[in-house]
Specification:
Helices cover 34% and strands 16% of the residues. The chain is an alpha/beta fold and 225 residues long. It folds into two domains: 35 residues, no CATH class; 187 residues, no CATH class. It has a four-stranded parallel sheet with strand order 1-6-5-2. The protein has a two-stranded antiparallel ribbon with strand order 3-4. Helix 9 links the parallel strand 5 and strand 6. The two termini are 31 Å apart. Bound molecules: zinc ion (2 copies). The site of one zinc ion has 8 residues, from helix 3.
Length: 225
Protein backbone atom coordinates (compact mmCIF):
# COMPACT_ATOMS: atom_id res chain seq x y z
CA UNK A 1 0.00 0.00 0.00
CA UNK A 2 1.15 3.54 -0.71
CA UNK A 3 -0.01 6.97 0.46
CA UNK A 4 -2.40 8.41 -2.14
CA UNK A 5 -1.18 11.93 -1.38
CA UNK A 6 2.64 11.74 -1.27
CA UNK A 7 3.02 8.23 -2.85
CA UNK A 8 5.29 7.06 -0.04
CA UNK A 9 5.17 3.33 0.54
CA UNK A 10 3.45 2.52 3.80
CA UNK A 11 4.63 -1.08 3.93
CA UNK A 12 7.20 -0.43 6.64
CA UNK A 13 4.52 0.80 9.01
CA UNK A 14 2.84 -2.59 9.15
CA UNK A 15 3.10 -4.13 12.60
CA UNK A 16 2.15 -7.53 13.99
CA UNK A 17 -1.05 -5.99 15.25
CA UNK A 18 -1.93 -4.84 11.72
CA UNK A 19 -1.50 -8.36 10.44
CA UNK A 20 -4.07 -9.59 12.92
CA UNK A 21 -6.54 -6.77 12.20
CA UNK A 22 -5.73 -5.52 8.69
CA UNK A 23 -6.08 -1.78 8.14
CA UNK A 24 -8.25 -2.05 5.07
CA UNK A 25 -8.87 1.62 4.45
CA UNK A 26 -5.56 3.31 5.12
CA UNK A 27 -4.81 5.22 1.95
CA UNK A 28 -2.92 8.06 3.59
CA UNK A 29 0.24 8.22 5.68
CA UNK A 30 0.16 9.87 9.09
CA UNK A 31 2.38 12.77 7.94
CA UNK A 32 -0.10 13.71 5.21
CA UNK A 33 -3.13 13.04 7.38
CA UNK A 34 -1.79 15.49 9.98
CA UNK A 35 -1.70 18.25 7.38
CA UNK A 36 -5.43 18.14 6.72
CA UNK A 37 -7.03 20.42 9.28
CA UNK A 38 -10.36 19.49 10.84
CA UNK A 39 -13.06 22.13 10.82
CA UNK A 40 -13.38 23.01 14.50
CA UNK A 41 -15.47 25.33 16.66
CA UNK A 42 -16.49 28.06 17.03
CA UNK A 43 -18.58 27.71 13.89
CA UNK A 44 -22.01 28.73 12.67
CA UNK A 45 -24.49 26.11 13.92
CA UNK A 46 -26.11 25.98 10.54
CA UNK A 47 -23.36 26.01 7.90
CA UNK A 48 -20.14 25.41 9.91
CA UNK A 49 -18.47 28.62 8.77
CA UNK A 50 -15.91 29.87 11.30
CA UNK A 51 -17.99 32.25 13.37
CA UNK A 52 -18.30 33.49 16.95
CA UNK A 53 -22.01 34.10 16.38
CA UNK A 54 -24.20 30.98 16.50
CA UNK A 55 -25.73 31.94 13.13
CA UNK A 56 -23.21 33.54 10.78
CA UNK A 57 -23.64 36.62 8.64
CA UNK A 58 -23.94 34.56 5.45
CA UNK A 59 -26.79 32.45 6.80
CA UNK A 60 -28.63 35.58 7.94
CA UNK A 61 -28.15 37.05 4.48
CA UNK A 62 -29.54 33.91 2.83
CA UNK A 63 -32.53 34.06 5.13
CA UNK A 64 -33.18 37.57 3.79
CA UNK A 65 -32.63 36.69 0.12
CA UNK A 66 -34.72 33.53 0.12
CA UNK A 67 -37.19 34.35 2.95
CA UNK A 68 -36.92 30.80 4.25
CA UNK A 69 -33.57 29.10 4.02
CA UNK A 70 -34.11 25.78 2.17
CA UNK A 71 -30.96 24.31 3.73
CA UNK A 72 -31.51 22.94 7.21
CA UNK A 73 -27.90 22.16 8.12
CA UNK A 74 -24.47 21.70 6.60
CA UNK A 75 -21.69 19.59 8.10
CA UNK A 76 -18.15 20.06 6.77
CA UNK A 77 -15.17 17.95 7.72
CA UNK A 78 -12.03 19.93 6.85
CA UNK A 79 -10.85 23.50 6.37
CA UNK A 80 -9.57 24.71 3.00
CA UNK A 81 -5.91 25.08 3.98
CA UNK A 82 -3.09 25.05 1.42
CA UNK A 83 -2.54 21.32 1.74
CA UNK A 84 -6.20 20.70 0.99
CA UNK A 85 -6.18 23.19 -1.88
CA UNK A 86 -3.43 21.18 -3.58
CA UNK A 87 -5.25 17.90 -2.99
CA UNK A 88 -8.52 19.28 -4.39
CA UNK A 89 -6.78 20.75 -7.43
CA UNK A 90 -5.32 17.31 -8.16
CA UNK A 91 -8.72 15.70 -7.66
CA UNK A 92 -10.90 18.11 -9.65
CA UNK A 93 -8.69 19.74 -12.22
CA UNK A 94 -5.92 17.24 -12.86
CA UNK A 95 -8.07 14.13 -12.94
CA UNK A 96 -6.54 12.31 -9.96
CA UNK A 97 -9.67 10.26 -9.23
CA UNK A 98 -7.89 7.90 -6.84
CA UNK A 99 -7.09 10.64 -4.34
CA UNK A 100 -10.65 10.46 -3.01
CA UNK A 101 -9.77 7.10 -1.45
CA UNK A 102 -8.14 9.00 1.42
CA UNK A 103 -11.44 10.68 2.37
CA UNK A 104 -13.82 7.74 2.07
CA UNK A 105 -13.44 6.55 5.64
CA UNK A 106 -13.91 9.94 7.27
CA UNK A 107 -16.90 10.78 5.07
CA UNK A 108 -18.62 7.55 6.11
CA UNK A 109 -17.75 8.14 9.77
CA UNK A 110 -19.08 11.70 9.61
CA UNK A 111 -22.26 10.49 7.95
CA UNK A 112 -22.76 7.92 10.69
CA UNK A 113 -22.10 10.47 13.41
CA UNK A 114 -24.54 13.12 12.19
CA UNK A 115 -27.04 11.63 9.76
CA UNK A 116 -27.45 7.88 10.03
CA UNK A 117 -30.79 8.05 11.89
CA UNK A 118 -32.37 10.49 9.47
CA UNK A 119 -33.32 8.10 6.62
CA UNK A 120 -31.87 10.43 4.03
CA UNK A 121 -31.46 9.92 0.31
CA UNK A 122 -27.85 10.60 -0.67
CA UNK A 123 -27.66 13.02 -3.58
CA UNK A 124 -24.40 14.44 -5.03
CA UNK A 125 -24.51 17.95 -6.46
CA UNK A 126 -24.72 17.37 -10.22
CA UNK A 127 -22.33 18.82 -12.78
CA UNK A 128 -23.56 20.07 -16.11
CA UNK A 129 -23.16 17.47 -18.84
CA UNK A 130 -20.47 19.60 -20.47
CA UNK A 131 -18.43 19.89 -17.28
CA UNK A 132 -18.89 16.19 -16.54
CA UNK A 133 -17.45 15.25 -19.93
CA UNK A 134 -14.59 17.68 -19.55
CA UNK A 135 -13.65 16.36 -16.10
CA UNK A 136 -14.42 12.70 -16.77
CA UNK A 137 -16.19 12.24 -13.44
CA UNK A 138 -18.32 14.12 -10.95
CA UNK A 139 -16.23 14.71 -7.82
CA UNK A 140 -19.34 15.03 -5.64
CA UNK A 141 -20.62 11.67 -6.88
CA UNK A 142 -17.23 10.08 -6.18
CA UNK A 143 -17.40 11.34 -2.59
CA UNK A 144 -21.05 10.27 -2.23
CA UNK A 145 -20.13 6.68 -3.01
CA UNK A 146 -18.24 6.65 0.30
CA UNK A 147 -21.70 6.42 1.90
CA UNK A 148 -23.66 4.42 -0.66
CA UNK A 149 -22.80 2.74 -3.93
CA UNK A 150 -26.06 3.99 -5.40
CA UNK A 151 -26.46 7.69 -4.70
CA UNK A 152 -29.40 9.43 -6.41
CA UNK A 153 -27.90 10.95 -9.56
CA UNK A 154 -31.16 11.07 -11.56
CA UNK A 155 -33.50 13.42 -9.72
CA UNK A 156 -31.44 16.58 -9.99
CA UNK A 157 -29.69 17.90 -13.09
CA UNK A 158 -27.64 20.99 -13.82
CA UNK A 159 -28.28 22.93 -17.01
CA UNK A 160 -25.83 25.82 -17.30
CA UNK A 161 -22.07 25.55 -17.48
CA UNK A 162 -20.99 28.96 -16.12
CA UNK A 163 -17.93 28.52 -13.95
CA UNK A 164 -18.78 29.45 -10.35
CA UNK A 165 -15.13 30.02 -9.53
CA UNK A 166 -14.88 32.80 -12.13
CA UNK A 167 -17.75 34.79 -10.63
CA UNK A 168 -17.56 37.34 -7.85
CA UNK A 169 -19.07 36.62 -4.46
CA UNK A 170 -22.01 38.94 -5.23
CA UNK A 171 -22.62 37.32 -8.62
CA UNK A 172 -22.57 33.88 -7.05
CA UNK A 173 -25.09 34.74 -4.37
CA UNK A 174 -27.49 36.25 -6.93
CA UNK A 175 -26.98 34.07 -9.99
CA UNK A 176 -29.91 32.31 -11.68
CA UNK A 177 -30.63 28.80 -10.47
CA UNK A 178 -29.17 26.24 -12.95
CA UNK A 179 -30.73 23.16 -11.29
CA UNK A 180 -33.86 21.27 -12.32
CA UNK A 181 -35.62 18.13 -11.17
CA UNK A 182 -36.43 15.33 -13.60
CA UNK A 183 -38.81 13.44 -11.30
CA UNK A 184 -40.52 13.95 -7.92
CA UNK A 185 -37.73 14.08 -5.31
CA UNK A 186 -37.45 11.92 -2.19
CA UNK A 187 -38.70 13.56 1.03
CA UNK A 188 -35.48 13.83 3.00
CA UNK A 189 -32.22 14.48 1.20
CA UNK A 190 -28.55 14.73 2.09
CA UNK A 191 -26.65 16.69 -0.56
CA UNK A 192 -22.97 15.83 -1.01
CA UNK A 193 -20.30 18.13 -2.40
CA UNK A 194 -16.56 18.63 -2.11
CA UNK A 195 -16.59 22.22 -0.93
CA UNK A 196 -19.00 24.64 0.71
CA UNK A 197 -17.97 28.21 -0.09
CA UNK A 198 -20.78 30.79 -0.19
CA UNK A 199 -23.42 28.07 -0.06
CA UNK A 200 -24.97 29.28 -3.30
CA UNK A 201 -24.79 25.99 -5.17
CA UNK A 202 -26.12 23.88 -2.32
CA UNK A 203 -28.93 26.31 -1.55
CA UNK A 204 -29.93 26.45 -5.21
CA UNK A 205 -30.17 22.66 -5.22
CA UNK A 206 -32.08 22.71 -1.95
CA UNK A 207 -34.49 25.32 -3.23
CA UNK A 208 -35.15 23.41 -6.46
CA UNK A 209 -35.77 20.17 -4.54
CA UNK A 210 -38.05 21.86 -2.03
CA UNK A 211 -40.09 23.53 -4.74
CA UNK A 212 -40.51 20.08 -6.32
CA UNK A 213 -41.83 18.67 -3.04
CA UNK A 214 -38.89 17.59 -0.87
CA UNK A 215 -39.40 18.23 2.84
CA UNK A 216 -35.93 18.59 4.31
CA UNK A 217 -32.49 19.14 2.86
CA UNK A 218 -29.19 18.84 4.68
CA UNK A 219 -25.67 18.71 3.30
CA UNK A 220 -22.37 17.00 3.99
CA UNK A 221 -19.33 18.59 2.42
CA UNK A 222 -15.70 17.59 2.63
CA UNK A 223 -14.50 21.17 3.08
CA UNK A 224 -15.74 24.45 4.52
CA UNK A 225 -13.81 27.32 2.96
ZN1 LIG B 1 1.64 10.76 2.54
ZN1 LIG C 1 -23.81 30.01 8.62
Amino acid sequence: MYCHICFKSMQEETTWKDLLTPKLFEYICTECEDQFERNSSPTCQKCMKRSEASICHDCKLWQQILTTDPLEQNISIYTYNDFMKDAIARFKYRGDYEIQMVWRKIILETFKKYFIHDKLTIMPIPLSEERHQERGFNQAEALATSITYEPDTKTLIRIDSGKQSKKSRYERMHSANPFQTTQPPPKHILLIDDIFTTGTTIRQCAQTLKQAGAQSIKSLTLIRS
